[in-house]
Design a protein that fits this description.
The protein has about 525 residues and is α/β, with parallel strands linked by helices. It is built from 21 helices and 14 strands.
């Protein structure tokens, strides 16, 4: 009998520099329908960017908008609310304050993502929304940054995030209303200079088609289509000709913000930044010798939904920027793949079955998995203190797709898989904030057990099943007879787990040898 597909509702929130967007979808398997959308142009990055703190008024607007959005999502019955923040929050020295406020006032857990991860999520959305052959270049113009992504339907092989968002450029270069020709020319020169390296790499790689996303590009597509008689070729999909874009730029340059808003039906805030968006799009296309692109309404928020579905359906993350970066570092370090992958499997199995105990989510699960893959990469330097070498290699590898904070947590989890446990006297641990330290303690305690279960590097432990009763936690090990070394090693390494979670672990052979599912999903309402 076929298994019934679970129907669930997911809300994805994109906290951008210019706007906050939310989409609520109802999913059956991987088939989704949108049941509501909400957008508020709060301009969180107004008056900040470039290392300046988020302004109090901007944070007030953002938190109020997020409170309304989370209430709407819950009213719609969303069982999962995933919120990510991009450029403005990523660069702000007071981002922790904003995240705490959003958690306290809106009950929302926000994750700050790197530019590369942002690009990865955007391209996931493009893949689901646009039918393209071969390779495609994706361009997304946000308020603080521009993402450039090159990939196929199954793999991303280039991603870059450049500080050329339309709000950032407007604040820095187009200060008069309307801007002078000199201001526009200076802005164009800055764009070309900033894009030089990325454009060179993209040219070398080559691509077959070009796809643009974001509200800015969709607005420009609408304006350009009205000027040259273009029309939509699919729902939310327009063609934008470079010649029409050039004419649009000249028109926008001579108009004030109020005139743009009235002439093209734009929101005042969009009207204030639309010229900067047109300039960066035009310069990008011109440098890459692209005559036209397709403008797609799918964006970061749809990519968030796609990733949630990918994870819940256990699909491989072969196209992930972060996965690729981790595997490349592992290969360079000549890691033992079979052992590393097996420890990663066992660690995530334990993580999935102990969610009520540790209370962590998908981001922490992914960090644990990557830490397990990388935990012994320091061995190629030396056996002695190799866990510390692993920490150093991870910390300074420049892993694409991760924020600095994520790399710091990942490196610490790998470092504490053996020997001493996390302690404030250790410089690498003391640099973390209180929340990060808690995550490192929990994840490293799980990794210690998983590594012990493959002590002989023979992958003899096929699976682990965890059952908790009161203070007792029973680990049932699916392994052939003669696996006493693994059980004893796991028991010794469980002392820190016992201390962190106040439980009494025991390790016993599983009575049945029937194969088990690799993943037991636990419910979660926010990420």
């Amino acid at each position: 009998m076929a298994r019934e597909k679970t129907i669930r509702r997911i809300a994805a929130i994109d906290i951008g520099t210019n706007s906050i967007h939310m989409v609520i979808v109802e999913c059956e398997g991987r088939s989704c329908r949108i049941i509501d959308r909400q957008k508020e142009m709060v301009q969180l990055g107004l008056g900040s960017l470039g290392g300046q703190p988020l302004q109090t008024a901007a944070m007030d607007r953002a938190v109020e908008a997020l409170s309304r959005m989370t209430e709407l999502a819950r009213n719609h019955g969303a069982g999962r609310i995933v919120a990510v923040a991009t450029s403005a929050v990523r660069e702000a020295p007071n981002r922790a304050e904003f995240i705490r406020r959003a958690n306290r006032q809106a009950g929302l857990r926000i994750r700050v993502i790197s530019g590369e991860e942002e690009a990865d999520l955007i391209f996931r959305a493009v893949r689901d929304a646009v039918d393209f052959e071969g390779s495609a270049l994706g361009i997304d113009i946000g308020g603080g940054s521009v993402e450039l992504i090159l990939g196929t339907r199954t793999q991303i092989y280039f991603a870059a995030s450049e500080p050329l968002g339309c709000l950032r450029l407007t604040q820095a270069w187009l200060r008069k209303d309307p801007p002078t020709r000199a201001e526009v020319q200076a802005c164009q020169k800055h764009i070309r200079r900033t894009l030089r390296k990325s454009v060179s790499e993209i040219r070398d790689l080559g691509f077959d088609s070009c796809i643009g996303t974001s509200g800015t590009i969709m607005a420009l597509a609408d304006i350009a289509a009205g000027r040259d008689g273009g029309q939509a070729i699919a729902a939310g999909l327009h063609r934008v000709e470079v010649t029409a874009l050039e004419e649009t730029i000249e028109t926008l340059r001579t108009m004030s913000v109020a005139e743009r808003a009235e002439a093209f039906g734009l929101d005042q805030k969009r009207a204030a930044t639309i010229l900067a968006g047109a300039l960066v799009l035009h310069q990008t296309l011109r440098l890459l010798k692209v005559e036209q692109l397709r403008a797609c309404s799918a964006a970061l928020r749809e990519g968030i939904v796609a990733r949630v579905l990918d994870r819940s359906s256990r699909r491989a993350r072969d196209g992930s920027v972060r996965e690729g970066a981790v595997r490349e570092l592992a290969r360079r370090s000549r890691y033992g793949k079979a052992h590393a992958d097996h420890v990663a499997m066992l660690a995530t199995r334990i993580f999935d079955q102990t969610t009520p105990l540790h209370g962590l989510g998908d981001e922490e699960r992914e960090i644990l998995e990557h830490a397990a893959v990388l935990h012994e990469i320091g061995l190629h330097i030396s056996w002695k203190r190799h866990h510390k070498h692993s920490y150093y290699l991870i910390r300074h590898a420049g892993l694409k797709g991760f924020t600095n904070e994520q790399v710091a947590v990942l490196a610490n989890v790998a470092r504490y898989y053996r020997k001493s446990t996390p302690h404030e006297k250790h410089a690498n641990f003391s640099e973390l904030d209180e929340t990060q330290r808690s995550v490192v303690k929990k994840l490293s305690s799980i990794l210690r057990i998983a590594e012990g279960l493959d002590r002989a590097h023979k992958q003899s432990v096929r699976d682990v099943s965890v059952r908790k009763r009161g203070k007792f936690m029973r680990f049932e090990i699916a392994a052939p007879a003669g696996s006493d070394v693994e059980l004893e090693s796991a028991h010794k390494r469980s002392k820190y787990f016992s201390k962190i979670f106040s439980v009494r672990p025991s390790f016993v052979p599983e009575k049945s040898s029937e194969p088990r599912s690799r993943r037991t999903d636990a419910p979660s309402t926010s990420e």
